[in-house]
Amino acid sequence: MTLQRQVRAVPGAEVIRTVCPYGCGISCGILAHVKDGVLLKVEPSDHAGTSHVCVKSLSAPKLVYHPDRLKHPMKRVGERGEGKWQPISWDEALETIASKLKDIGAKYGTNSLGFVSTGVGLFSNLLTVGFAGACGGTFILPAGLGDSAGPCADMASFGAFMWYGEDYLNRFENPAFCVAWGNNPADTQPFKWRRIMDAKEKGARLVVIDPRFTTTASKADEYIRIRPGTDAALALGMMNVILERGLHDIGFLIQHTVAPFLVRMDNGLFLREKDISRGESEKYVIWDQGENSAATHDMSNTSPAVIGTFTVNGIECKPAFQLLSELIDQYPPEKASEITNVPVETMIKLAMEYATQKPTATYRGMGGTRGSLYGDLTFRAINTLAAITGNISVRTPHTTQYNFMTFMTHGISDLVTLLQMYEAIENEQPHPLKSLWMTRHNLMNQDPNFNKFTRELLPKLELVVAVDMFMTTSAKYADIVLPTCSPYEWNDLAASIGEGSQDYLQLQKKVIEPLHESKSDIEIYSGLAEKMGIEGFLDKTDKEYIEIMIASGHPTMEGITLEKLEEAPQYPAPDPAPPFATPSGRIEFYTERLKDFDQALPVYIEPMESQRTPLAHKYPLSISTTHPKYRLHSMYTNISWIREIDTEPVLNISPEDAKPRNIKDGDLVRVFNDRGEVKLKAQVQNGIPQRLVNMNQGWSPWHYKAGTHQALTHNTINPAQAAIYEPNAAFCDTLVEIERVEEG
Ligand code: SF4
């Protein structure tokens, strides 16, 4: 590795190139300075022309050597949540857990054993999935904690997994126009923000669409305020302007999207060749204007119609673009403006710039996914806007196709999604869940409807285990807590997860020995497997497993070896797969799988707890719970360096909402709805619109005067999202009321 700047190491210290392991997913390259087995400091490595880390990574020694780190396994001796613990040996801890898991499995079926984990390293997650499979248990997919609506949309539109869909919308060399939509990368995604600023320096204009005036908005050329959760209506209104003026990219639509594919009016499915002739051909059918007859989509020298109604073998059909146009016709700018509060002139100007300043790069964020129960439709509408204007990068996203089956030695576990977990615990659907194992997943702090979980669901669980570095909110409610290593104490493989993360495959290196009695995941799971009598699970070293994972044989991994990874990050080879992995191989703004939900097209649906619903008479304010700049969810709330700059939770409220409630800056306020409450200080702020309040999420209950922010949120499942991937917790689709309360 060649560094382009001087590295100042303490005399005698070893400087080890590794990767920031914290779950923000960006995976910045770092240099760890280690002397006599002690991690002294962390600094950025030179990596792909970038050289920075954020305050979280810089605080690594404070985290690793924090006095509150869990030092031994402990068992609960009081009531759950009471905080009474007794240290026990690893042997007793694993023996107790193994015995209880076996009992529960025998009584309710082994799929009643639930496992969840989070983390960036591949061991961090795949080991838990593998162990769940090894004991016949159920892995709980964790993306539904606010992160799955976007991927639902991108799976439908592009066939893209997780956040790789973002690549299609903004990976342009030199975007002429940048739109940050419900996204605040200046605070939360440094690499993405760097790309935007690079584009801006080259002359691109930046527009920010957000209900809040964010840090990103403060750096933009134009800020457009929108009513929370109405972004799909804005996208539809913009598309109306674009179609009205003929600014859509018809060539792109015909070549790369399902625009010309005929849709049957009798059942909402694409017309297939087998529908109109003998045989089983699944080929899609278009209407060839040249021959004035139907043809399969792959025939050459056709002139596909995208507008019109056609009858093929007695079946009335319309091209998908005709159906999209009919939807868009329902959203003239005046109507979209009435829904979104974006002025008509602003919308028209934005639409025209979006369509003509090519390429336009769109950066979508959690605001879109969490702002509405229908966050997937928000993203699909934005994807469709990008597609009709040809502002899509037609290339397969850079991925590293490692061997994720490495640890599935005993078969694949049952899966339930995070929100379905609530149903499985409460109503035993689709099957009972009677134990919960959480590896670095602070479920009670980060998942919705805290009071429901702790008061109604927790008592139904016969065993709760938390594997963590600290006594988190979730660990407090566990029966047994196990101390895990910091990520500087084990080897792992860090791969890109898309959306502004590094495209590289990197080694997360063990730079110090495990502290106290903490163990790595491999040690913990292999010890538990032994106690449970599971043979052949985890019988290799971490580096041997890394070699197995990278030897997947996939073209993207060609030439990548452990030796090379030890030296430097490795860039995956181009993926030869077609750019879009949808059923049609094209961008699907019309999704057959969602027709039974009346969501085959990206329709606009008012948020569930919208300010325009009857519930708003009782609870008139929307609340957003946004990502903090200095913390990663609940991580780092205990780090002194960070608490110096991020001192306590505050609620941002507009002067217009504060005044009639007699709330002044610094007053203690109670935020409440039917589900629960939280008490914290008010911060009266002009950057917040009327009828919206905002706070950073991640604080734990003990940081508030009372309650917690997740007591306000709900765990409602959107079944259309479940039909695609994983339903999302719509944290910001939440109504509340606020009142000033006295201290004490
Ligand atoms: S941005 Fe993320 S990966 Fe980079 S240093 Fe910060 S926490 Fe680590």
Topology record:
Elements: E1 14-19, E2 29-35, E3 38-44, H1 55-58, H2 60-64, E4 74-76, E5 85-87, H3 90-108, E6 113-117, H4 122-134, E7 138-141, H5 149-158, H6 165-170, E8 177-181, H7 185-188, H8 190-201, E9 205-209, H9 215-218, E10 222-224, H10 231-244, H11 250-256, E11 262-264, H12 273-276, E12 285-288, E13 293-296, E14 310-312, E15 315-319, H13 320-329, H14 333-340, H15 344-356, E16 360-364, H16 366-370, H17 375-388, E17 414-417, H18 418-427, E18 435-439, H19 443-446, H20 450-457, E19 463-468, H21 473-476, E20 480-483, E21 492-494, E22 506-508, H22 521-532, H23 542-550, H24 562-567, H25 615-618, E23 621-626, H26 640-645, E24 650-653, H27 655-658, E25 668-672, E26 677-684, E27 692-696, E28 706-707, H28 719-724, E29 735-740
Parallel strand pairs: 6-7, 6-18, 7-17, 8-9, 8-16, 9-10, 18-19, 19-20, 23-27, 24-26
Antiparallel strand pairs: 1-2, 2-3, 4-5, 4-20, 11-15, 12-13, 14-15, 21-22, 23-29, 24-27, 25-26, 25-29, 26-28
Helix pairs in contact: 3-22, 4-22, 5-17, 10-13, 10-14, 10-15, 10-17
The structure holds iron/sulfur cluster (SF4).
Iron/sulfur cluster binds next to helix 1.
